[in-house]
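Amino acid chain:
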Amino acid sequence: MKKYISLIFIFGFLFLFQSCSSQASLDSKTVDALVSSEEFTFYAQRAHPTNIDVIQVMNSMQNASATRILELNDNYTVELKKDSLDVELPYFGRTYNASFNTSGTRSIYRFLSKDFKITKSQNKKGNWTLKIQPNDIRDVYEIYIEVFKNGKAFVSMRSNDRQPITYDGYLSKNEESPKEKEKL
């Protein structure tokens, strides 16, 4: 009888973890539709800086994890629409060009591009790779977005004047703004 109780407890525990981990995932058909339409929003959950100075500061903090990952809230996004690319992502790393901008925007990627080129491909496993090249933004060279079948995504920013940084998070359908709702 004790074996049955322990087995039920173990299966219940595994079922609990399975249900918790699958809450933020999408089905593969929805992901394919979002990527094919080129209309989606990427929500960044974690940032992965590559600068050794940032990593050393992170490791020197008390009670810091050794994973070198910065947890983010859902306020940081890459919103892709047919006619625009709206990016707002934090930046942790070294910049190579001095800026006299006093607004503090050097620590964040914040821009709106109306002129960009998208190249996308799908591999044998069903994962998508998007390469976005904004033509009207001087500082950003390329944005790579790798989208997995479950809706999770990995974004890499390559810039002309900063060290590269990567983010991971998830995809979602674009939200309608109040102005768009009024038009309907």
